[in-house]
Design brief:
single chain; 241 residues; alpha+beta; six-stranded mixed β-sheet; two-stranded antiparallel ribbon; 6 helices; globular
Length: 241
């Protein structure tokens, strides 16, 4: 099914982007986990929208409080003084909807991320910078990143912001509108290189398959068309919208 517009009527009323992006990310993870990712990797959806991060599952160690009072082993109440410096700040708000590819060898480690851009990621300079910095940090740590931008209600070039975050010029061929771009970092320090596989997107047109880089020379196909179609089927969306 071709790319649909969930930011304008009629779909913005019946199937708004918040609902669809969550299902799209789930469909991506499901398809990656069924025969696409090699042994040792698995995909999971990370969702943080309109609120604080919620911990779904936690492993805790029982805590035994120390005895109170002034005796041996007791604790004394303590209050710090007033801060020497307090300034007003504006924390950027981000809608995080992404698919994380993790390793299952010991402690889970992020190997790649698929970022689905939201309107809030594009609405202000601070939000754009925060989004780009997050992606750049993934790349600095050797993770592959795919940025999928289908937001047609905000006009901002997040791909150029990402290049700026790593101190590079975007060069020719980078889409300025709707796009899906796969990124891979190679080397480190002065010999580092950012590689990109950009594809321009258009509402009503088919979606591409882009490489999802996991580590070194290892890449798997990320079929955006198949996952988009699966999400539409899950939500009973017909092509006519």
């Amino acid at each position: 099914m071709p790319l649909l517009d969930h930011f304008h009527p009629p779909l913005s009323r019946t199937h708004p982007w918040r609902t669809f992006h969550g299902h799209w990310a789930t469909a991506m993870a499901r398809l990656l986990n069924v025969g696409i990712l090699p042994s040792g990797y698995y995909a999971a959806v990370f969702l943080d929208r309109d609120g604080l991060i919620e911990i779904d599952v936690a492993t805790l160690q029982p805590f035994e409080p120390l005895a109170s009072g002034n005796g041996a082993g007791g604790t004394q109440p303590w209050s710090p003084g007033e801060p020497q410096l307090a300034v007003a700040v504006e924390w950027p708000s981000l809608d995080d909807v992404r698919v994380e590819v993790l390793t299952d060898d010991g402690d889970p480690r992020l190997a790649a991320a698929v970022e689905l851009v939201s309107p809030r990621n594009k609405d202000r300079a601070k939000s754009r910078e925060a989004f780009a910095a997050k992606c750049a940090d993934h790349l600095r740590h050797g993770c592959g990143v795919v940025v999928v931008d289908v937001v047609n209600t905000r006009h901002a070039n997040l791909q150029a912001e990402l290049f700026a975050a790593v101190g590079a010029e975007p060069g020719a061929g980078l889409p300025e509108g709707l796009s899906a771009v796969s990124y891979r970092s190679v080397g480190r320090d002065t010999e580092g290189q950012l590689q990109a596989w950009p594809v321009a997107l258009e509402v009503g047109q088919s979606l591409p398959t882009v490489p999802l880089w996991l580590a070194g020379e290892l890449a798997v196909p990320l079929d955006l068309e198949a996952s988009h179609t699966a999400a539409c089927m899950d939500l009973r969306i017909r092509q006519a919208g």
